[in-house]
Amino acid sequence: MISIKGLKHYYTDADGKEVKALDGIDLDIKKGEFVAIIGANGSGKSTLARHLNALLLPTEGTCTVGGLDTVEEANMWDIRQQVGMVFQNPDNQIVAAIVEEDVAFGPENIGVPSEEIRPRVEKALAAVGMTDYAKHAPHLLSGGQKQRVAIAGLMALEPDCIVLDEPTAMLDPQGRKEIVATVKSLNKDKGITIVYITHYMTEALAADRVVVMEKGHIRFMGTPKEVFSRVDELEKLGLEAPLAAKVASELRKSGIKLPKDIITDEELAQALCQ
Amino acid sequence: MSINLTNVFYTYMTGTPFERQALNDVSVSIEKGEILAIIGHTGSGKSTLVQHLNGLLKPSSGKVTIDDIDISGRGGEAKKARQQVGMVFQYPEHQIFAETVYEDISFGPRNRGFSAEEVDKQVHEAMAFVGLDFDTFAKRSPFQLSGGQMRRVAIAGVVAMNPDYLVLDEPSAGLDPRSRNAVFKEILALHKERGIAIVLVTHSMEEAAKYANRMLVINKGKILFDGKPAEIFSQHKDELVAVGMDEPQVYKLSALLRSKGLDIAEGIADSAELVKNIKKAKGWR
Q: Inter-chain contact B253–A244, Cβ cutoff 8 Å?
């Protein structure tokens, strides 16, 4: 679905200094995969995400989406239709005064015939569980609901892939649960490829693969189990393993024998209480 | 020394179809010296509540006093009282505007009418507090700093005004775990060394459990619970979930281990404490 090879993204800051935001990234994302990207502030996560739908272009190397190279200007609209983006702030992503109009904005914009728009909007709202709110005013919704409307707006464009850049950073616990559940269901039930950037390690547990970034490089990647059992390495990168992994690692350090790959509460409870 | 809200009501857009009661008879006293966490779902009224603490919003009815002075007045005394409350809003880095870090941080104290020497002293102290080296950062443009550094500049700008009360709305939103810990270390130091009362609005149950000694749970414009975080989290779990809140992760894990027969104490707020408890429960040294 997405293939990134030797990708570098350099820019010059206001002091005239060259900043290497991405410095040689190789990453292949398969169709239907759920990939989480974690890394400290400034590690290059968002810069990488913005290459996936040609918001940013490589200084060196290539990024192809469904076989289309993002540097070819002629490919841009196809790529942006295939890969949708959700950002942190729900209030900055809503354009209309009624939920269903907001969701219809995308398809209208790309010239979807009007008789096709309504079914698309209905399907998109159903996919994020917001059908009951079709006639509501978006600004009166909760943060989690607004983010789901933003996701519905993308779904109406029938994308293959959705990239979410810290979609829960501004949400309360209920809103965070809603977004994680919505993203999981889009991935499992609709086969949408998901790229999910987050600072919450518990959210990354839902992914098939976790990519760990630092200073414009991918440091390591693997299944949540492989990545989150490397507690000390994560801490060195300014990150935090999920609580159960952290506790298990501390116990192991004081000489207690526990399996190396404990990352969930249940796994820890089982290891301790068998 | 305290901020007192007495029977405060607040209605948004009175007399329009969008009229909404955001605060409904809130009475609370915030004492100097405490760290108070305020939690509640989006739209619960917590941001409306904190905007009353320094007069950004005036109650539709009811009274707000800071150190016994009614802050609704126009006089110099009321203004002085309002200035005792420093506010750091969500994403404070978006409120940075000056060309250098020094100018940005000195804006507040200059506005408060501090003398030039006093301003300089406050800027130095505030930068030291938030861990920004003066010689490295004072002359730099704040817009070239990292997200975490910009947030520290913004917090330093409020600290430099030397407030008695500091209100922080989601100070860790969008920060990575290391920067989150760094920001809280600074906040705790401010509280300890200057005795500043901290009001922390947060969506993170972990932060409320770990840092606050008192917690307010706001729902539908009312105070649902007011007490020690440990007590509220352990005694009112179901009610919290019902209003869109949650238990901290460490409470969930502790409860699971208890249910499997391990003797883990109630109210453990961090992982190190939990590790100790597990070892004790298992008879490990």
A: yes
Q: Could you tell me the maximum CA-CA distance found in chain B, to the nearest angstrom?
A: 67
Contact A42 B246 (CB under 8 A): no
- Three-state secondary-structure class, residue A218: strand
pLDDT tens per residue across span B255-266: 999 999 999 998
Q: Yes or no: say if B179 and A40 are a contact pair by the CB < 8 Å rule.
A: yes
Q: Residue B70: its pLDDT value, please?
A: 94
Residue ranges of chain A with per-residue pLDDT less than 50: none
Strands (E), chain B: 2-12, 20-31, 35-39, 61-66, 69-70, 85-88, 165-169, 197-201, 214-219, 222-227
Element (H, E) at A68: strand A68-69
- Rounded Cα gap, residues B80 and B69, in angstroms: 10
CATH of A2-241, one of 3.20.20.370, 2.60.120.460, 3.90.1150.10, 3.40.50.300: 3.40.50.300
| Entry pTM | 0.87
Tell me: pLDDT of B210 over 80: yes
Query: Which residue spans of chain B are classified as CATH 3.40.50.300?
Result: 2-245
Task: Give the residue extent of every domain in chain A.
Answer: 2-241
Closest to B144 (Cβ–Cβ): which among A14, A41, A254? A14
For residue B275, the chain A residues in CB contact (below 8 A) are 247, 250-251, 254
**Per-residue pLDDT tens digits for A229-238:** 999 999 999 9
- CB of B113 closer than 8 Å to CB of B192: no
Which of chain B's residues have a Cβ under 8 Å away from the Cβ of A247? 253, 271, 274-275, 278
B256 and A169 within 8 Å at the Cβ level: the answer is no
Give per-residue pLDDT as tens, A111-148. Answer: 899 899 999 999 999 999 999 999 999 888 888 899 99
C-alpha B34/C-alpha B28 separation (Å) is 13
CB A170 within 8 A of CB A88: yes
Residue B15: per-residue pLDDT: 84
Is the ipTM higher than 0.85? The answer is no
| Chain A residues touching residue B245 (CB < 8 angstroms) | 172-174
- The CATH architecture annotation of domain B2-245 reads 3-Layer(aba) Sandwich (3.40)
Q: Is A251 on the interface with B (CB under 8 A)?
A: yes
Read off the amino acid at residue B106.
Answer: S
Contacts of A13 in chain B (CB under 8 A): 144
Cα-Cα-Cα-Cα torsion B243, A205, B248, A150, nearest 10 degrees, comes to: -30
The reply to whether residue B146 touches residue A41, judged by beta carbons under 8 angstroms, is yes
